[in-house]
Amino acid sequence: xxxxxxxxxxTINYNxxxxxxxxxxxxxxxxxxxxxxxxxxxxxxxxxxxxxxKYKNExxxxxxxxxSGIYNAMNKxxxxxxxxxxxxxxxxDELCNTNVLEENYSSVNTEDLIYFDLEQIFEDxxxxxxxxxxxxxxxxxxGTIGHPTTFIKKDLFNRIGLYDxxxxxxxxxxxxxxxxxxxxxxxxxxxxxxxxxYMDGISSTDSCFTNNERDQVIKEHFSEYVRLNxxxxxxxxxxxxxxxxILNRFGFLNSIEEV
Length: 259
Description:
The chain is of the alpha/beta class.
């Protein structure tokens, strides 16, 4: 492994030894090896530390100590990472196959965010979630991109700041939103599946709390974009109205197409 790896893969865990074993195995079995691997455990008491010990020779850095939540643990990983790009594959999730990094590492080169599609794993089915080809404020007012499928240039955290630890669920969404909407970061979509995401985590099940936190962030940072979006919808609806079409046909509103 080189002194300056291209990629830092970070896994956080708390009391999920079965999921942790699956995650670590998917990372350490990769055929591509130019990455460092960091595991941040929140002082688990379910045997997770034994799992880490099992793989310790293939883990660059690990720690098991109390933390204050998901994003506190993720921020610990960011501070310790030395790679140019960071990828979060948290406990329970996994890279989609052993060759996926080797097949796609050449795509990880220039942009601030390089994101892939995601395989969602439900109890009774799987689904390929295709993220949009371009990111703008509409992407984040109605959705997001996935942290298990997004390589984040580490320098972006220096420019924007670390994850907001006051948020329980949506700090990664807030970070991506700020990066794209307010900081104008560069991004690129790769049309391939990178990771598997198991749809039983806290962000998948606590939708009410997620919506409350999103509303809080939108009110604080993005209210002007919501107003702009509503204005664009109003103008688009006006252009479609029967009255406007009649007036425009007779030359009264020739300038409407310039709105």
